[in-house]
Write a structure and sequence with these properties.
Structural class: alpha+beta
Strand content: 5-15%
Helix content: 40-55%
CATH topology of one domain: Glutaredoxin
CATH superfamily of one domain: Collagenase ColT, N-terminal domain
CATH architecture of one domain: 3-Layer(aba) Sandwich
Length: about 775
């Protein structure tokens, strides 16, 4: 009996049109992007390298492109090609493979399947071969229940397999004898039986004998080796039938023959036959779901692997990251994952890794092969000459190295000068916004994480391709913040991220402000390293404050959280128990934000008491405060607040305003003072200045409130305009902040420029 599960491999083999039918019926549902999020398990150190200190590994909310595993893929397999080497294949079809797999039936063709559904024996073969086009068989993949059992019981499959054996003896290299319809019926039968074993019944020795006879005859037919479009149309489905029938090992010679003969000049359908060889190879190594004899075939005939590697080197000019050579070449890594094949696989894999560059068009091939050597042949990097790869990759991949200030550095794959400047400004200004909310008294004593390195890959694909090895992290996420040991000299806090390429032409580093808050929170609020803070449930705060600062600083409405507020799913006391293990992403991020916002606005004194305990590492005391001192006494008020928040009345932080400035000149500011009702007409300025004594380390200028849209400019010792400035903050609305480190002494100047006429704004200056 065959298992009733549908393997991932089998699922991909539904014809393009057949898959469309399944999708229309809702049988295949896309995986949710709101999958549960948990902390990544510590990744093993690169073989031969010194293990890094245990990182503070805070997983980032997943990007839309995040994979579900830790292995990098070919560029095409992600559904979004790398910007460095765009794939040239057709867009993926519903089954995840090329839309070229099968063409749609001509509109004028009458694909009446009633005769097939009701026939058996010789009549069944006659009905199939009478179908006017091979694509008429596609709906057969959709059969279920009694219909599936009637059409695809073993006796029916044996009849058609025997007919294929007979017809193959005279195969003319085209579909003139309707051999394609017979192949597709058998393909559909294997698929439907695997999906509906209870209805169809088991497949046993009679079918195995018949299908072997059929495939033997087809691949022995001289015209099955024709390099023509006509032959390829049937050949590509016959290759897939090898995999459908689990006869991968028996026909390893066919794999060898196709790979040894392939060139870039082959017509499209022949190229597709080689693409389907990838499935035969991949399933052949999937020993978890059954041994198909493929490994044994490779052990018996080492020339298969040699031909396979030669296929790659002979067609190396085709490599672009998503091509057939890359995808099949990547599978060579499986050789070093199997004990009995490792000896023959090591020199082949080593040659390819060292033959082709690690970046650019060949990067997907080389990095996937490196993944196999690191994960499946661990501790043997000297064999492959890859022990220093993590260090070598950094300058090769991250070609941009920019210093914002003494505390902030950006390493990037591809960022413009303006993108770098804007990112620096965003983070520096967020620093001030964080301290305004938290009201801390400086870093936690002994915390040496005085600087943060932001690593920005060009997109998720490049992040998944390189970050796993460069930084020893999991990449099935949206990025990772590593705090390391903040008490260790030389420790480097690092946020490893990628550009949100799906938002282009707008530029955004995915979760930038969220993750920068993690750095600030770890430095100013949470004693010790990440593991120390996880001794009791603190995730409601850790992720909640990151979401709150990220959204409030950017002035964005957190629509997803506000929607959740209307559902009233959780009590506040329940949220205090949130961990990565007991919660999904909605509870961790949306509800963490709601809990933190409520506490900051409604009970700031409790937040201050809680942070006082977090800052000295009194995790038990903090837990007691949450579960006993507070307990459930805020639950009812929290529920009321959620109702108001769902109606977009979430409230604001308690007022903490500086005193009014006292100078007679309304343009003049002083230390820690504000001016209200600042206004300017569209295109005009509100000019301001203040005098700074010597030794000022940091000047902060903020604008809030009012209507319209004012942008903030600073220019040191001369008037600030849109054409002459040293720093700017240009968000939508009037919420702007500039933090100037080590400003000059004497008079300094800043201005509000009216992108849109504004009034009622409050401007505040502070320095220390």
């Amino acid at each position: 009996m065959r298992p009733s599960r549908i393997s991932k491999a089998t699922l991909r083999r539904v014809p393009a049109l057949g898959a469309a039918f399944f999708l229309a019926l809702g049988l295949f549902a896309p995986q949710s992007h709101a999958a549960p999020v948990g902390p990544a398990a510590p990744a093993k150190a690169a073989a031969g390298a010194t293990p890094a200190a245990a990182p503070k590994a805070i997983p980032v909310p997943k990007s839309p492109d995040a994979s579900t595993g830790d292995r990098p893929l070919a560029a095409e397999s992600t559904g979004r090609a790398s910007t460095a080497h765009p794939a040239t294949e057709a867009a993926p079809a519903a089954d995840g493979k090329s839309a070229k797999q099968l063409s749609a039936a001509p509109a004028a063709v009458d694909c009446n399947l009633s005769g097939v559904l009701g026939a058996s024996g010789g009549a069944l073969v006659q009905q199939l071969t009478a179908l006017p086009d091979v694509t008429c068989t596609y709906p057969l993949f959709n059969l279920t229940g009694a219909d599936a059992g009637k059409v695809f019981r073993e006796a029916q499959m044996v009849t058609v397999a025997d007919a294929l054996r007979t017809a193959s003896a005279g195969y003319a290299g085209n579909n003139s004898a309707s051999i394609g319809q017979l192949v597709m019926f058998l393909r559909a039968g294997y698929y439907v039986q695997e999906n509906n074993a209870a209805s169809v019944g088991g497949y046993g020795a009679p079918l195995q004998t018949s299908i072997r006879g059929a495939l033997d005859a087809f691949f022995a037919a001289p015209h099955s080796q024709d390099v023509t479009e006509a032959n390829g149309a049937t050949l590509n489905e016959a290759v897939t039938l090898i995999d459908s029938s689990h006869e991968n090992g028996r026909y390893a010679g066919v794999v060898k023959r196709l790979l040894a003969g392939y060139t870039s000049t082959w017509p499209a359908s022949m190229d597709l036959a080689v693409q389907h060889v990838e499935w035969v190879i991949e399933s052949g190594f999937d020993l978890e779901h059954g041994d198909r004899g493929f490994v044994a075939a490779l052990q018996a005939d080492p020339s298969i692997a040699t031909a396979w590697a030669g296929f790659v080197t002979r067609n190396g000019a085709m490599l672009n990251g998503g091509d057939v050579v890359t995808r099949i070449g990547m599978q060579l890594g499986n050789l070093v994952a199997v004990d009995g094949l490792r000896a023959q696989g090591r020199p082949l894999v080593k040659d390819l890794i060292n033959r082709y560059p690690l970046v650019g068009a060949t990067g997907p091939l080389t990095m996937n092969l490196v993944w196999f050597t690191e994960k499946k042949d661990a501790g043997n990097c000297t064999v492959y000459g890859t022990c220093d790869l993590p260090k070598r990759l950094v300058p090769l991949v991250l070609t941009v190295d920019h210093t914002c200030n003494a505390n902030l550095r950006i390493r990037a794959q591809d960022m413009t000068a303006q993108q770098l400047a804007d990112t620096c400004t965003s983070l520096v200004n967020e620093d001030a916004a964080f301290h305004k909310v938290i009201k801390d008294n400086g870093p936690i004593p002994g915390d040496l994480n005085t600087s943060l390195e932001v690593v920005a890959f060009d997109d998720y694909y490049n992040y998944s391709l390189y970050a796993w090895l460069m930084y020893n992290i999991a990449v099935d996420n949206g990025g990772m913040y590593e705090e390391g040991n903040p008490a260790a000299a030389g420790n480097q806090a690092r946020f490893i991220a990628h550009e949100a390429d799906w938002l282009r032409p707008a530029f955004q580093i995915w979760n930038l402000n969220h993750e920068y808050t993690h750095y600030l929170d770890g430095r100013y609020n949470m004693a010790g390293d990440f593991e120390a803070g996880m001794t009791t449930p603190t995730i409601w705060w850790v992720e909640g404050i990151a979401e709150y600062i990220s959204y409030s600083y950017r002035g964005e409405r957190y629509a997803a959280a506000i929607t959740e507020a209307g559902k009233g799913t959780y009590k506040l006391s329940t949220l205090f128990d949130t961990t990565y293990d007991n919660a999904d992403s909605t509870r961790i991020y949306n509800w963490g934000y709601l809990a933190v916002r409520y506490m900051l606005q409604s009970h700031p004194q409790d937040v201050n008491a809680l942070l006082a305990k977090y800052r000295v590492g009194d995790w038990a005391g903090a837990r007691t405060l949450l579960t006993s001192t507070i307990g459930t006494r805020y639950d009812a008020d929290f529920a009321s607040w959620l109702t108001a928040c769902a109606a977009d009345n979430c409230g604001t932080l308690p007022a903490d305003r500086a005193p009014l400035c006292g100078a007679a000149d309304t343009r003049q500011f002083d230390k820690n003072c504000r001016r209200d009702n600042v206004a300017a007409a569209t295109g005009n300025y509100s000019y301001s200045f203040l005098y700074l004594p010597a030794g000022v380390k940091q000047l902060t200028v903020t604008t809030t409130g009012g209507s319209g849209n004012a942008d903030l400019y600073y220019n040191g010792g001369s008037w600030a305009t849109t054409g002459s400035y040293l720093a700017k903050s240009a968000n939508a609305g009037n919420g702007e902040t500039l933090t100037i480190t080590n400003p000059p002494s004497g008079w300094v100047y800043f201005s509000l420029y009216a992108q849109q006429g504004f009034n009622g704004a409050t401007v505040t200056t502070q320095y220390q």
